[in-house]
Amino acid sequence: MSTEATADPIVALVAGHPWVAEARTAPDGRILVRPRPSATAAGPSPGPLLCEHLDHWAEVYDWVYQDAHGRHADDLDLSGWRASDTGLPLPTEHMRDWLDRTVELVLSQRPRRVLELGCGTGLLAHRLHSHLDGYVGTDVAQAAVDRLGRAGLPRTAFVRAAAHEAGTAVVRRAMDAAFGEGVRPDCVLLNSVTQCFPSLDYLTAVLHEALDAVTAPGTVIVGDIRHSGLLTHHFTWLERTRTPTSDGDTLDARVRAAIAGDEELSFAPRAVATALEAHFRPVRMSVHARTMELNTELTRYRYDLVLHVDPRSRALHDSDAVRRVRWPGHQGKGLSVALRTALSERPAILTAIPNALLGDAPGAVTPYALRRALHGLDATVLLDADDPHMLAVAAPAGCAYAAAVPPADAPVAAGPVAHEPLTAFVRRRLPEVLRDHVRRTAPGTVPPSIAVVEAAGGTAP
Predict the structure, then answer these.
(1) Is residue 160 within 8 Å of residue 194, measured between CB atoms?
(2) Are 353 and 246 in a shared domain?
C-alpha cells in the first residue's frame, strides 16, 4: 500500500480491496486503481473479475433461453439469434443453412463421441446425436440444460458447466453416462461460444483443457468465430446501416468507438496457433470459411477452426508435399471447370481467391459459389489464415491444414490478433465494485470517482 493510501482513508479503503493492486489519487481528484493480475487471471482458476464477466453472459443466456422467443420447435430454438444491424431475428432458412454447414463440418471429421462445450438450446445436439455413439453437452444456462435433459435424446447427457470446466467431476460423470466409464471424447466442440469469452488467456485455457480431454487421434472444433481482422469492415457496415448520411470523419469516429466498446471476443487464427505452441500434443489447424448462401454477418465475418490432434497420416500432414497454386481467375471458363483445372494435380491448395462478400476484386468468388462449384469433389473451402479477405480451396479436403502453414516467403499477417472485451469490462465493473465497497465499509461516505489504469504508472482512460 502506498504512503498516499495510508494518509487518505478512502484511498486506503479502495487499496485494501482484494482485487486492487494499487490505488492513488489523480490531480483531478479521481482515485486511480490498478487491478491485481490474479483478479483477471484465467488460470489456474478464473480470477474474480474474469468470473464476473462469465457470470454476466450466463445471466444473459439463461434469460434468453427462458424467454424462448425464437423457439420454432424442439430442435429449432433460435432464441437470441438476431441481426446486429436491425435487431430482428435472422431468417429461419438462413439459420437452417448455418446449422447444415456446421453439422457437415463436424461429421466430416468422423467423430463417435462428442463433448460440446456451450450447447445452448441443442441446435447441434438434436442433429448430431443420431450419428454418434454418445454426445455430452454443457452450458452455463440452467434453463437450456434442463430443457435438453427433458428431451430424452438417446445416448446423450447434459450438465450445467462453463467452458473451462470440461475437466471437472460433474462433466466426467456425464461422459461416463453417455460414453461409458472412463471413455473420452474423440471430438470436443465449441460452436458460437467464443464470442462470450473474456480474453485470449481464457480461450487458451479452454483450448488446452479441450486438447487434454480428446483422444488421439481426435479433433477440437471451434466454430462460428468472429474474426478480429474484419472488425473494422464489420463495424463500418453496421454504422453505415445505422447512420447512412454520416460524413467520412464522423463515420470513422463512430466505428472506432464501436470497436472499443464491443463486448464480444474476436480473434484471428494466429492467436490460436500461438496457443497451440504452448501445448504438449502435436496439433494441426485448418481454417474454414462459412459457406452459407445468404450474405449476412454470419457468412461474411465468421469462420471455423478444426484442430487435428495427434494426426497419424504423414502423407496428408506433410505440408511440403502439398502444392500451393494461386487462383488464376475464371479465364473465360465456368467456375467449376476453372477450379478443377487449377486443382488437376493433387494434393493442392488453391490460394489467393478474393472473397466477393468483402470486395469486388478481379476473380472474386463467394464462399457459397465455391462450395457449389466443388460439389462432388473431395475438397473444402478455406479462409486464408493470414488475410481474412481471401479464400482458399484444399483438395483433397484432408490436406486443409496445409493452408494454415505459411510458405517461407509469406508476408507477416496484418490486422489485430484479437479484440479482448475483458479490459473494457474491468474498466466499467471494477469501479462499481469499489464504490459499493466504500458504501458498505464507510456508511455515509460520498462514493469517490474511480478509474482503472492498466499498469503501475499508466494513465487513466
Answers:
(1) no
(2) no
Average model confidence (pLDDT) for the chain? 92
Residue 133 C-alpha cell reads as 455413439
Torsional sign, CA 103, 107, 109, 115:
positive
pTM of the model: 0.93
- My answer on whether 380 and 290 are in the same domain is no
Mean pLDDT across 397-403: 92
Q: Among residues 415, 428, 22, which one has the least CA distance to residue 226?
A: 415
- The pLDDT tens digits for 222-267 are 999 999 999 999 999 999 999 899 999 999 999 999 999 999 999 9
Contacts of 122 (CB under 8 A, 6+ apart): 75, 77, 137, 144, 147, 148, 151, 153, 158
- Strand segments, DSSP code E, in 74-128 are 76-77, 113-117
C-alpha cell, 380: 473444402
pLDDT of residue 333: 86
Whether 341 maps to a domain, the answer reads: yes
CA distance 326 to 334: 17
Phi, psi of 324 (to 5 degrees): -115, 120
- Nearest CA to 289 out of 211, 339, 353, 376 is that of 353
> How confident is the model at residue 7, as a pLDDT?
63
Domain with 394, as residue range(s), is 313-404
Kind of pairing between the strands at 418-419 and 266-267: antiparallel
